[in-house]
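Pilot study result, target chain (166 residues):
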Amino acid sequence: MSCGKNFDSGSCVIDILRDIVDAQNDVITDCMTSCEQSIADLLGDTGGGSGLDTVPVILYCKGTCKPFKGFGSRKFDDYCNVKGSFFFRVKSVDDNGCAIVELLLSERHHDLEDSSSESNDSRHRNYDPESPADQNCNNLQASGICITVDLNCFCHVTCLPAVAAL
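Predicted structure:
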C-alpha cells in the first residue's frame, strides 16, 4: 500500500519523496501529516501563492530509526570543505528507489562561511552537527552539495515546514 498520492512503488519513503519532487517541480485541512501540510504550503493550497520552493526532509535509517546525516563537500577558496546535514531537499527520485538529495544548511552556517571578518581557519572549518536539534531549521539554504541515496535504506521521513531555500 502506498502512502504517497501519485505513486505506488511499495515503499512509503519513496512514494512521499516522489510526491515532494513533483510538488517542488510544480512551484512556478484539519488533520494532515507534516508532509501533506508542507506540500500544500509549498503549492500555496493554504492561502495564495506561497513563494516557497523546498520541503526540507529528515530521513531515518532502517534498523536504527536514527536520523540520517549526509556528508558532502565543495571547493571553497582552495579548501575542501566537508559539510554534514540532517536536512535535505529532494532533487530527484528514480524508478529504482535512488534519490539525489541536496544538503540544506542553516543560515548561521552560511554566515560563517561568507564572513570576511573571520579568520581563514574558523571560516573554513568543517560543519558537522551532532543531531537535527543542533541545526536551526529556520532559514535553511541550498548548499549546492548533492549526494545520491538508496531510499530503500530508510524507514521514515519527516517533513519540515516548506521554505524558500533556493
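One observation from the pilot: The chain has a mean pLDDT of 80. A full batch analysis is planned for the follow-on phase.
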